[in-house]
Design goal:
Strand order of the largest sheet: 1-2-3-4-5-12-6-11-10-9-8-7
Largest sheet: 12 strands, mixed
Strand content: 25-35%
Number of strands: 12
Shape: elongated
Distance between the termini: 13 Å
């Protein structure tokens, strides 16, 4: 089967990353597949590239995916990336395809959904803390301590994937909220402030679709180490649920994903009523241990 790959510059340009793309077409010029490779400009993440490959179902198992993969891995190496990460559903042909080409599991995510019709009991903040909420960009008086509180996610489990140190400053904090607003979505943040210091010490974020319907997506929950074990995460999450119901009565549910080894957060979500929906593997290809040529499909039977 004659396949032509056309490299493209993808318009999805972000402040700290960019994508390059390939379009696969058959001899008649019909699109049959695509690949997207996201490259990071932050020094801490420049070693990572993120890969998405799609092949039309009717065209699979003809070597198209292998050709796209070879092109993407070669480009990642040319761009000085050391590791390529691809996210796929567990126990699917896509996962088998990656394993066949030398990918290994970097970490496993458990996806879950909370039906907002579920009865969830509120949890009051522990003594010495108060709960604050805001929509969109964080208020000026809290922006620095909220930015600092993001370090509460630094010790989150990442499996075998080295994401480097994720540096945040005030400008990035504000920009992240502005980008969500530009997409027409709503960012809802619930945070815990320590009364004695006036500092944000824990938070949870939710992004709601612009029409206020369907499901909202949890973006992150963190508690600074010195304030853990006091029930802050439960308190913030129950307030998040109450607020989402009140502000968006047509919203159906809340979505979250948790690393399988983050047992404490998985137990908390289960206690709140989140029900697992599916499992996803983030698979990695180590370019320092294998050359892109190792995946070239010439001597291998098509698998995708």
């Amino acid at each position: 089967m004659s396949i032509k790959l056309t490299p493209l510059t993808d318009p999805d340009f972000r402040p700290f990353s960019r994508r390059i793309a390939w379009l696969a077409a058959d001899a008649a010029g019909h699109p049959v597949g695509s690949a997207f490779l996201r490259l990071h400009s932050r020094e801490s993440m420049a070693h990572l590239a993120e890969l998405e490959i799609t092949v039309h179902p009717a065209e699979r198992r003809r070597g198209i995916g292998s050709q796209l993969l070879y092109a993407a891995l070669t480009a990642a190496r040319d761009q000085n990336a050391r590791v390529v990460v691809a996210e796929v559903h567990a126990d699917t042909p896509s996962y088998e395809f990656l394993v066949h080409h030398g990918f290994t599991i970097g970490l496993t995510l458990i996806f879950a959904r909370l039906d907002l019709a579920t009865d969830v009991q509120p949890a009051s903040p522990p003594a010495g803390y108060r709960v604050v909420t805001w929509q969109g960009v964080v208020p000026d008086e809290l922006v620095q301590s909220f930015t600092d509180a993001r370090t509460g996610m630094d010790d989150a489990p990442t499996g075998a994937i080295d994401y480097g140190t994720d540096q945040w400053d005030v400008a990035r904090t504000r920009n992240a909220a502005e980008v969500i607003a530009q997409r027409g979505e709503y960012l809802m943040t619930v945070a815990a402030v320590e009364e004695a210091s006036g500092q944000v010490v824990a938070f949870t974020e939710l992004v709601v679709p612009g029409d206020g319907k369907s499901d909202a997506q949890n973006y992150g929950t963190a508690v600074l180490p010195a304030h853990r074990g006091r029930g802050l995460a439960r308190c913030l999450k129950t307030e998040q649920i109450r607020w989402a119901r009140s502000a968006f009565p047509d919203l159906g549910g809340l979505l979250t994903d948790t690393v399988d080894t983050n047992v404490a957060m998985r137990h908390l979500n289960a206690a709140l009523g989140y029900v697992p929906t599916h499992t996803v593997h983030r698979c990695l290809f180590d370019l320092t241990a294998a050359q892109p040529a190792d995946t070239e499909p010439a001597s291998q039977p098509p698998r995708h």
